[in-house]
Amino acid sequence: MITGNNAVLQLGTETSYGTVAVMSDVVRFSSADFKPVYNKKDDGLLTGKLIGSGKETMSVKTGGNLSTLAKPKTTGIFLKGAFGVEKLGAQDETTKKYPHTFTLAGNGETDYLPSFTATVDKKAGIFSYNGLVIDSLNMSAAAEDYLKLDIVFVGKDEETGTLAKNLTVETAKAFKFRGGKAYIENTEVADVTSMKYEHKNNTKSAQTTSTGLYFSQPQQGTREITSEIEIVYSSATEALRGNWWKKDNTFAFRLNFADDDGNTLSLEILAAQVTACDPPAMSGTDELKQSVSVQAVAGDSEPVTAVLTNDKAEAY
Predict the structure, then answer these.
(1) pTM over 0.70
(2) 172 vs 243, more confident
């Protein structure tokens, strides 16, 4: 019997779109669903027989969903894929860690996000899914839990694959809610009970006479960057609602995570606006909580920046 626990997933960054990459990392996951999508159509013609005609393949593409935990090294793969641009900083003399700063790729004609190949051993077969581009990246952490990642990929094709040998699984522990904090204008928001970050690239691709059976390389559109925090209701949250929600002001919003080994993750929206901040309904005896949703808006600086600090001395 084959179970999900038998499966193995490896990832590699492609040197050119759709060309199967050399596998570089093993990713442990809670769920993974990579598969080809065949668009098959019949010709619509009357057959003069008792049944209709057969179908033919019009186009092929792939897609994938991956859920895992945010570990100090592996998270950088997905940040690079979602943001597109990375700058590696110098090693900190005290912590001996390296900062990896990720910013958004441009939207010019030749600007593209990195593409990946995922090789999945499903035990009934080993398959490679090439041309994978991150369409969305979600991060979430709730009390007494880990920081979780949910990634949606769009891709090109499925092939028979081969697992790379001698790759090791990251042994570092994942970031946790207890190591997280939220900030508005560099002031910590007290008593946060859950945090979310959602990054949509809104990729687009098309089948053309140049692509044949497949689709063009997915290209990022207008990015949608949102975040949400749930807070214990208090006079402080009412002040937040009055200062930012009612007045339509923009502000710097940041989520920080740190682990017990000195690794850190920062997600900062430099020009954010509150899009929802309704006061909680008054009912029952449970503690009241208030949700605050923010969205990145266009400004004079980078809309959003992620900084991951870890032991990795090379760029992703």
Answers:
(1) yes
(2) 172
